[in-house]
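For the sake of transparency, this paper describes our internal protein records without simplification. The record that follows is passed on verbatim for readers who wish to inspect the format:
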Amino acid sequence: QVQLVESGGGLVQPGGSLRLSCVASGRIFSIYAMGWHRQAPGKQRELVALITSGGTTHYADSVKGRFTISRDNAKNTVVLQMNSLKPEDTAVYYCNADLKGIGVPRRDYWGQGTQVTVSS
């Protein structure tokens, strides 16, 4: 029984910033990676950024130089700092974790999603 809870979404003007947080809780044995995906209306869900347990990061080309992903292993938390936001960043953002729960096999878990709207 693992849950991912996102926070920090909202409405922001173009060029502004937003900080998304995700906390994993429950009977967690080990977290291998955490990241963020997003889905805009009429589009497929896409990877935005991820960070592994070893600290390796990956970003979608569209957000490189603007977004930064970080983690706090002690708190099972991942943060996505989004700067220089553009209208095309508007989407529902989903937290994702590759983890093993106690007594269950390793698999992906997903948060409920948080809306990010970039508009003037």
Summary: The chain has a mean pLDDT of 97. The two ends are 40 Å apart (CA to CA). DSSP finds no helices and eleven strands in the chain.
